Amino acid sequence: MDTITNTLKSQWEALKAENPHIRIRNAAKELGVSEAELLATQVGDTVTRLKPEFAAILTDVETLGKVMALTRNEECVHERKGTYLNPDFSSPYAGLFVGEDIDLRIFHMHWEKAFAVNEHSQHGSRKSLQFFGKDGLAMHKIYLTPDSNEKAFDTLVAKYKSDNQSTNETAVEIPLSIEEKADSSIDVVAFREEWINLKDTHDFFGMLKKYGVTRTQALRLAPEGNYAEQIDKLAIVTMLEGAAEQKLPIMVFTGNRGNIQIHTGPIRKTMWHNDWYNVMDPDFNMHLDMSKIAQVWIVRKPTEDGMVTAIEVFNELGEIIVQFFGKRKPGIPELQGWRDLVASL
């Protein structure tokens, strides 16, 4: 272990002694390194490096049984329990898991490193698989639950263990591209026309690329009528409380550049904790930092099944934090209960 790793390791030990409950993501921020660099200091102890064979590893996760999938960005954490079923890595752009419980869109070109982690605390041990981008930012984590198959976890780790078990880790900064073209240089008339004539919500992203508009700019330039309206961020709380009260099944999409994780179903228990608004259900937890929300929009997109209504939540940089929809599937119109709930906001 080299001096830099050694120093980082002892800095982290000191930080944990001072603040035993600090999370690794926050510790990394405090120490001015990436989470992957900090995690790597534990290789050979509680951490094992895995080969970066992401599709193969994820396909084998089904053998672990019921696990907890965690995907997050800076402002929102999405935790969903279930079994990884129906993997599809046939597309070079995105891998999929489409199950009732675990529903993911994986952009594996952004995935770079994989680790198996066995953390020990006063509550016992906690085993997980953790995947990071080249900047050392976590793309996705999979935690064992009391219902998981631990033996299968050990088999998977042995199968994918890397020859490289170095404690050294590097992280490359990925520059943010949030340049926005001037509204005057966009063909707004054609853009609005195309929006009005959308047939599928998935075509929306392609439309933004075609006209070179950012997402928040698109909402500002939306067609006349009810296509996009900005609302207060506390409307999210009203919506989630309303959905819980009415037992209305909703969809919650949270992601980062490497993965999008989706919950579909009703929610039950909602609550505040400091700046965070939370859903705390047995199989689904969401933690949303309300203090970091800059804009919230109701967005309506035409499809062959009628209008689809979303609530889209953005940070200061115009990046999407989380999206909410009523539960729906292709070929089935949107739930009227969801439309009414959103209209009441």
From TrEMBL:
Signal peptide: none annotated. This is Hemin-degrading factor. It comes from the Bacteria. InterPro entries: Heme_Transport_Util_sf, HemS/ChuX_dom. Pfam families: HemS. It comes from Flavobacterium litorale. SUPFAM superfamilies: Heme iron utilization protein-like. Residues 32-160, 212-345 form the Haemin-degrading HemS/ChuX domain.
